[in-house]
Design goal:
Number of strands of chain C: 0
Radius of gyration of chain C: 19 Å
Shape of chain A: flat
CATH superfamily of chain C: Fumarate reductase/succinate dehydrogenase, transmembrane subunit
CATH architecture of chain A: Up-down Bundle
Order of helices and strands of chain A: HHHHEEH
Distance between the termini of chain A: 69 Å
Mean pLDDT of chain A: 89
Number of helices of chain C: 4
Distance between the termini of chain C: 61 Å
Structural class of chain A: mainly alpha
CATH class of chain C: Mainly Alpha
Number of domains of chain A: 1
Helix content of chain C: over 70%
Chains: A mainly alpha, B alpha+beta, C mainly alpha
CATH superfamily of chain A: Fumarate reductase/succinate dehydrogenase, transmembrane subunit
Largest interface: A-C, 54 and 55 residues
Strand content of chain A: under 5%
Number of helices of chain A: 5
CATH topology of chain A: 3 helical TM bundles of succinate and fumarate reductases
Low-confidence stretches of chain C: 1-5
Strand order of the largest sheet of chain A: 1-2
Oligomer: heterotrimer
């Protein structure tokens, strides 16, 4: 906006306010989606610590057992699922794949993303459990 | 049902007198089920209070002038039926995220500037002379951009966008969607010319994909999709070898 | 707004967004199963999990493919988290989170996590093909 226009008519700009995301369900769930980063980051840091702990040798090692840890994971899980669900669904909106010169329907792309999620989960789960004793 | 009535609360702001806007209540007859919010405003202006200011033109959802906030949601008031709100009252406020000039009228200068900045017209490296005939397109080529060409510049998406609300430097939904509309057009060769505006820090990168722009669009344009696809395409230009060549 | 003559594509923004999206996909595909198996089913004793015993855990951690997998699994999502949390601050009314120093802090943290992960993976279990 030019400076002249600003002085010619006085306008009023309503303040946005930090609580804007509480005004609409859609905004609120957007903020939840963005917030998922925090619990997921904490859980991965725990995994890193768990790997590091193995370096202390057999006598110092104990399996992760505490109730607090299970509760922490149980809290992180819904956030992880919400991230997966939203991110893979939105990826179907963004990706444009052409097959034989015809654009693939976004439903097909979303289904592929969720299929990949399922396969990856089964493979990783099988390794984590299969090598257990 | 001849004496059905509805309460309309509208923002009043006189820049000469008022420090900040206030709401004024009007109790008016809701005489016809097909009445829209714009009809109610027109009734107020001609029968109750001639000083009420607002923009409107076509009253059929195509000019994009009558966008206002109706009970908290950006709407074209010509397409917002009173029957969907009655018996609740209807609160009409100006479009969010824009400076208020008077009553329900906002300053659209910033949007107009942004719209122009992305060059929303077909750019050719070399114009084909008129005598050479029309640029022909297949249905598939039209299908690439058709959805994004429905924009009527009503600014509802800007009013719905918290990213724009928090920082007006953001290029915003409609402008980026229109840039994409031309970038995807097989007749256009201006992608590289639009790139500096689009890929600027205040361009596509600022969007955090709230997605409300696409929800409020009265024309079914999906600006959120346009922005995310543009991010991906722009990234691929630089990530893929030779991606940045035309 | 400044005139567009001076505008150039923001390659830094492009790069960080690219890392954000890659990390996001990876987090979406892989993190839930780790939380379910290692965080809930294992500790509750529902299934036998590789990190329940020292010898199984240390032997799988020695596998170079597992090391590479864990590096990608842990480090890449942090670029996603850094980006999201930076913009979450912006959304909560902290415009300073857009500044260059804020970018250094947030993306720097992701780089730091990557370096620590490399160090941990190289120092905890000796590489073995077993």
């Amino acid at each position: 906006m030019s400076a002249e226009a600003e002085t010619a008519t006085r306008t009023y700009r309503p303040p946005m306010g930090a609580g804007w995301w509480t005004r609409k369900g859609h905004y609120f769930w957007y903020m939840v989606r963005e917030f998922t980063a925090l619990p997921l980051a904490l859980w991965l840091l725990w995994l890193l610590y768990e790997i590091q702990r193995a370096g202390r040798g057999p006598s110092g090692y104990y399996p992760p057992n505490s109730t607090a840890f299970v509760i922490f994971s149980a809290i992180c899980l819904p956030f992880a699922l919400y991230h997966s669900f939203t991110f893979l669904k939105l990826a179907g909106v963004i990706l444009r794949v052409k097959l034989l010169d015809k654009p693939l329907a976004s439903g097909v792309i979303v289904a592929t993303m969720f299929g990949t999620w399922l396969v990856a989960s089964v493979v990783v789960g099988a390794v984590l459990i299969g090598f257990g004793r | 049902m001849a004496d059905k009535r509805i309460t309309i609360r509208a923002t009043r702001f006189d820049p000469e007198k008022d420090k900040s806007p206030r709401l004024q209540s009007y109790d008016i007859p809701f005489s016809d089920d097909s009445m829209v919010v714009l009809d109610a405003l027109n009734y107020i202006k001609s029968h109750v209070d001639g000083s009420l200011s607002y923009r409107w033109s076509c009253r059929m959802g195509i000019c994009g002038s009558c966008g206002m906030t109706v009970n908290g949601t950006p709407k074209l008031t010509c397409s917002a039926f009173l029957r969907d709100y009655w018996p609740r009252s209807v609160t009409v406020t100006p479009l969010n995220n824009f400076p208020i000039v008077r009553d329900l009228v906002v300053d659209m200068e910033d949007f107009m500037h942004k719209l122009k900045s992305i060059k929303p017209w077909i750019i050719r490296k070399q114009e084909i002379p008129l005598g050479a005939g029309e640029h022909r397109q297949t249905m598939d080529q039209i299908g690439e951009f058709r959805q994004f060409s429905q924009c009527i510049n009503c600014m509802l998406c800007y009013a719905a966008c918290p990213v724009y609300g928090l920082d007006n430097e953001f290029l915003g939904p409609a402008a980026i969607a229109l840039a994409r509309r031309y970038n995807l057009d097989s007749r256009d060769q201006g992608t590289k010319e639009r790139l500096p505006m689009i890929a600027h820090p205040d361009g596509i990168w600022e969007c955090s994909f709230v997605g409300e722009c696409s929800v409020v669009c009265p024309k079914g344009v999906d600006p959120a999709k346009a922005i995310q696809q543009t991010k991906l395409d722009t990234t691929m230009r630089f990530v893929l070898p030779y991606g940045n060549r035309e | 707004m400044t005139e567009q003559v001076a505008r150039r594509p923001a390659l830094a923004h492009l790069f960080w967004w690219f890392m954000f999206s890659q990390g996001g996909v990876l987090a979406a595909l892989l993190i839930p199963v780790h939380i379910v198996v290692q965080g809930i089913l294992g500790p509750l004793g529902v299934v036998k999990v590789v990190d329940r015993h020292y010898d199984t855990w240390i032997s799988i951690l020695g596998n170079p493919i597992v090391k590479l997998y864990l590096l990608v699994l842990i480090s890449l999502p942090f670029f996603h988290f850094a980006h999201r949390l930076r913009y979450l601050l912006v959304d909560l009314g902290v415009p300073a989170a857009k500044s260059f120093p804020a970018q250094v802090v947030f993306y720097g943290a992701a780089i730091l996590v990557t370096l620590v992960t490399i160090w941990v993976l190289l120092t905890t279990a000796p590489i073995s093909l077993g």
